[in-house]
Amino acid sequence: MKRISASGGLGLSGRIRRLLRIGSRRRLRIWLLAITLAVVALKAVIIPYPWPSAPPEECTYPPIEGAKCGFIFDEAHYVPAARRMLRGEAVNNEHPPFSKFIMILGILLFGDNPYGWRTLISLCGAASVYLLGLLAYELTGSYRASILAAVLFGFDITSFNIGSIAMLDAPALMFSLLGALLYLRGRLIPAGAALGLASLSKTSAPLVILAILVYEALRSGYGAGSLRESLGSWLRAVERVGFVAALVLLLGLGAYDYYYGAYRTPFEHLNYILTYHSSLTFSESDEVSMPLSWTNPLFQFSRRSYYVVAVSVDSLKTYHPIAYYGMQTPLWWMSWVVFAFSAYFSYLKLRRGEFPKLEFFILCWLATNYLIYFPLAHLLHRWVYPFYFYMAVPAIAVGLPKLLEGDLISEVVLYGLTAVQVAWFLVFFPVKAEWYADILLKLGIQV
């Protein structure tokens, strides 16, 4: 029974604890907002680079020359698709349409130029930093670990690059993190709606739904008194999260198909998406970056040049004022450490009779957003790409600070890794002024 004071509220100690929790959350939001705004500012600076030298009419229908059109990486697919959708054409139907509608909105607001293509996508990428910090707090209850998680993810250079250009990934991750956060707060129907929007943004987003439903099965099984009670609890989550997400996906595809006359039903559209992606297989002669090369620092995939410009000055120096890369980062190297420690701490907590909330959530997220690509690539020979790891990075960023929290040596390692992660970001920041490049060159860093 709760102890009630004469004023009708909780006892003094209970009120103090409540005020401390409220104060901690308020400070956390302020810090997360500051980190997010810093990321927004950095993204805003680089939006106009590169700028197209050709008019939109030359960069809408194939053949498309990405450099002349100012396209970075897969922008060469999605920006022309957004332009054609704006003209009433049903194109790029192998991918869900919602991220492209966000690009269309940006074009309508800011014009058909890099500000139009990238601004709203960049805001989605930055919002993911804030949401990740809140998600970390829900899982860990640690103010410090949550801030470090936001820093590690916000200054992960490959994630920063993917979340700053006109691709499908940033909206998909933003809505996925929002859905996961709402789920952990017990708001299952809104969580399902957010995850439905994530699925409408990119085909890989349902893997997050799978992670949540697997985690819910483990949670329900641990806390239930009987198999029937466990199954009933899990089915309620499936209904309120999975069914709502599927409904949002079908309604969104249906509205798109009706407006553009693309398919008779959303089920036909889904069938096309699944058939198309199932057909993307590689042969033995193809060069494929297998999933282990995404996280193994000893056998890394070759650094991918998404868009790189080289400038020579009087034959004395060469630097890259624009250099968008896809690469491993120090945070990616910690993937297997986080996975191993999560499994080990799960075992210890279960032995103590404690449900490993954080550890199980990380393991489920990594299993469905990273480990799943091993059988897809090695057994089914499906094409996989290192930037797919973008959806798995949040689990590493959340897990690492909490798993290394505690003794002095672990915390020294944690802060050292965070410093290296930020330094890595600064070295490979995609747009550099000449003075900044000169500093790096004087330090012996050629990027």
How would you characterize the overall build of this protein?
- By secondary structure, this protein is mostly helical.
- The protein has one domain (24-442).
- It is built from 20 helices and two strands.
- It has helices at 12-46, 66-69, 75-86, 98-110, 114-140, 143-154, 157-162, 169-184, 188-199, 206-223, 227-260, 266-278, 292-295, 330-333, 335-351, 357-371, 373-378, 393-403, 408-427, 434-442; strands at 304-313, 317-326.
- Strands 1-2 form a two-stranded antiparallel sheet.
- Strand 1 (304-313) and strand 2 form a beta hairpin.
- Helix 1 packs parallel to helix 6 (143-154), helix 5 runs antiparallel to helix 6 (143-154) and helix 16 runs antiparallel to helix 18 (393-403).
- The longest helix has 35 residues, at 12-46.
- Mean pLDDT is 93; it is low at 1-8.
The description of the largest β-sheet is: 2 strands, antiparallel
Strand content: under 5%
* Chain-averaged pLDDT: 93
Oligomer classification:
single chain
Give me the side-by-side strand order of the main sheet: 1-2
- The structure class reads mainly alpha
- State the order of secondary-structure elements, H for helix, E for strand: HHHHHHHHHHHHHEEHHHHHHH
Walk me through the topology.
Elements (H helix, E strand, L loop, with lengths): L11 H35 L19 H4 L5 H12 L11 H13 L3 H27 L2 H12 L2 H6 L6 H16 L3 H12 L6 H18 L3 H34 L5 H13 L13 H4 L8 E10 L3 E10 L3 H4 L1 H17 L5 H15 L1 H6 L14 H11 L4 H20 L6 H9 L5
Antiparallel strand pairs: 1-2
Helix pairs in contact: 1-5, 1-6, 3-4, 4-5, 5-6, 5-8, 5-18, 6-18, 8-9, 9-11, 10-11, 10-16, 11-12, 15-16, 15-18, 16-18
